[in-house]
Design brief:
Blueprint lengths: L37 H30 L2 E4 L4 E4 L3 H7 L2 H35 L4 H7 L7 H12 L5 H8 L18 H26 L3 H9 L4 H12 L1 H16 L3 H6 L11 H11 L3 H27 L3 H4 L1
Helix pairs in contact: 1-13, 2-13, 3-7, 3-10, 5-7, 7-10, 8-9, 10-13, 12-13
Length: 329
Amino acid sequence: MPSRPQPTVDRVDARPRGGDVPTRGDHRRRRPGRGLTDDRFALALMAPAAVFLAVFVGWPLVKLVVDSLYDIAPLAGTREFTGLGNYGEALTSPEFLGAAGRTALYTMLVVMLEFTLGLAVALLFNALGKRARWIRTLFLYPLMIAPVVAGLLWRFLLIDNFGIVNELLTRLGIISGPDAIGWLSDPDIVLFSVALPDIWLTTSFMALVLFAGLQNIPGDVLEAARLDGSGPWHTLTRVTLPLLRPVIAVALVVRGIDAARAFDVILIQTNGGPQSASETLSLLIYRTMVRFAEPGLASAMGTLYLIAMLGVALIAVATIWRPGKGAER
């Protein structure tokens, strides 16, 4: 049986007049009605931020490193090149090494307590679900308080003889008198005391970040673990925390850098005392620059401090985040 001839349909050229049809992978096509390509338009949008970072971040960093190579006397107006002399003086200074040790101890104390409390609160909020909506709002209120105000508040709470904390402990019969514990005058415990306002202020931040990470964990993964007979502790350590590893890395790095540069909270409470027991690197650099008028040495200390923070951040990301490790198994 002969086949019927198929009707012919004239093809219509659908290409727009006056130009070629842009391909899907062409990222440099011109924007309609404008003379900028997509790449140049993106660069134009990023230019103000790039200029801002170059002026207020890049140039101060360059100036910091350059000044660290000179012995500068602001009052005399002299500037003498010393090379790495300021770095050698800083690394052999007992004050700098002591402040570095106290900064590391303060940072670890603050970050670990904040992470523990923040994780517990985040797990509680995640278990309560929508019922914890108002509690979450109230829990974020400390983030709205200025560090100076928090430092003053906790100074009044912990000050010797007149502090509310010691007064309450005395009335409860836990200590013998209001002067039994010198929260801000005992060199052995003052570093922990000045860390309390920082922990109180930013535990909310840690809880908020970890709670956001918990919300992104697939529910079917946790349900599968529960059906396999996994208990709460096993699920937390073997399922939840490994899935939270990138979030934990970001939270620890951000809070670690922020805690290591603590200045105003400590300054308003103890001014680095007693006996420099609460003097951190930020306070030492400030005093070296302002009180002792040694910008070169202070710049060298700041550069070493910046390099140390960068190294700690890279190590934390490499060991905690470990991107792609789960996919290799």
